[in-house]
Amino acid sequence: MTRQVRVRWSRFRVHPEAASPLPMSRREMDARGWDECDVILITGDAYVDHPSFGAAMVGRFLEWLGCRVGIIAQPRPERVEDFRALGVPRLFWGVTAGNVDSQLARFTVMRKRRRDDPYSPGGQPGRRPPHATIVYTARAREAGPGVPVVIGGIEASLRRLAYYDYWSDRVRRSLLLDAKADVLVYGMGEAPIALLVERALRGESLGGVSGTAWVSKTIPEDRVCVLPSFEAVSTLTAEGRGAFLEMTRLIHRHSYPGTSLRLVQAHGDRWVIVEPPPEPLTTEEMDLIYSLPFTYRPHPYYGKARIPAYEMIRDSITTHRGCYGECRFCAIAVHQGRRISSRSVGSILAHARRLASDASFRGTITDVGGPTANMWQTGCRDARRGGCRGRRRCLVPEPCPRLEADLEVQRRLWQALRSIKGVRHVFISSGIRHDMALAFADERWFEDLVRWHVSGRLKTAPEHCVDHVLEAMGKPPGRFYRAFLKRFFESCRRVGHFWGLTEYYVSGHPGCTLEDMITLAIELRQRKVRPEQVQDFYPAPMTLSAAMYYSGRDPLTRKAVYVARSDREKAWQRALLLCQEKEYQAKAREALRAAGREDLIGRGPNALVPP
After folding, report:
1. Which of 95, 317, 347, 409 is the most buried (most CB within 10 A)?
2. Nearest by Cα to 332 from 378, 372, 275, 287
3. pLDDT by residue (tens digit) across 477-501?
């Protein structure tokens, strides 16, 4: 007899604490009385039953829909037996590389092999294969021939159409074709997953669901935006790079909730069809999925092995998803979307009380935030009408007048969290958007932040100080950060806490020359700042910065942009940022000599590095 699976999720209920995590073995299935799973999820991460891990979130949501869900975590690609551990799913396989891109998890931007993987037990590297989505899909096909495969996660989401691949330095086909999957779910997948389950139960085609990509021999007749073909954008000519820029511009313009257009792209004699994104989750829906019965622990299979990524987030609270910032190098907006989905105050407080009641909790909530902590419960006042169809720039070069951001609500949330019995400290570790704080926060917000919610250093992301580089990055002009610094340190003096800042900087971003990086190094020297968080620029697929890196032009304006391509210049730019560290000083001297700035080598007060 066919079991009933609940696929409509407009009615909510309170969820009891989970008795056990989702099964990873036949023995656990037998204990539940299962003869098969409806959906089996294959992930490149260790299985931690926590909402910060994508496979756990999707798994618990599928369970709430009524599905029997199993997890295969970090299977060995050379052993098909690992993929047969739970049998064959009744509806479909769900495949993800994990919370991070599988290539970036294995190698640094300078192509050096990483020494650890925080999403693996013991931080052990090499547990996920390169191009994990492709490899896992192939093995799932071997383990269960004829069963549909649905791929998702950030690796698939950013590769739903033709994309520039940094590792091979060429344009590759949509991952949907290379993986030979049936459907690709992009973005945050709860809404598409519910519809895919409904269709699978009825035996219908999985294609055509909002928030997914699929392949067809024919192009839909209406509501389409035809992108330049894969063959056009992958040609290594000026025309090919121009076609790539046009593809990027169209994707950027039409990838927002409320659009009625499908993006379609020819790959040979087939079409990759990307359906419009679904509407972001409402506050009630966010509360629902964060109330699902997670155990908030790694699966017992791992014993006492430490999973670094879990240790980092175990006592944190996610308040929202999405980011309407303008950072052109960041994949968050491409993956999570530009509209904010926020949890309610009650949901967040309930999460905090659950943390405080845990015997292992030591009194500190390590973070209350999301991609940017002070975007919680903010957004466009025109969002209900589909949002802005014109300017579509919320923060750069200055905040849009239609942006609604009442940070007093956040300050009162912080107060409520501090008052919970058993909570001694509530920190904001995910960082804040400094231009938003400057524009919308009053003195009470700043003083509460400084007095109660900084654990020694506050994280900020100025990224650079030269305005034309910041413009290429999609960041606000440098004067905003300088004004924020003044206001932050004034608040520190008023409350008597003299905190520092952990400032994030990017080296090698398109638009940044060696001279620009020297300017930044001089400013940091004058401010007596020793950068701790420096990121070599990585051209994440589907971002505007990746198109700049590949083509040498801004995809929105077509203006030429300087690009540091050689490994030597990338190393020089990084060394200039870290020139106060001995291990980088030799490279920094090379960079200064190459730029004709030997005057900055010496032992004087203005020197960047010693001779």
Report:
1. 95
2. 372
3. 999 999 999 999 999 999 988 888 9
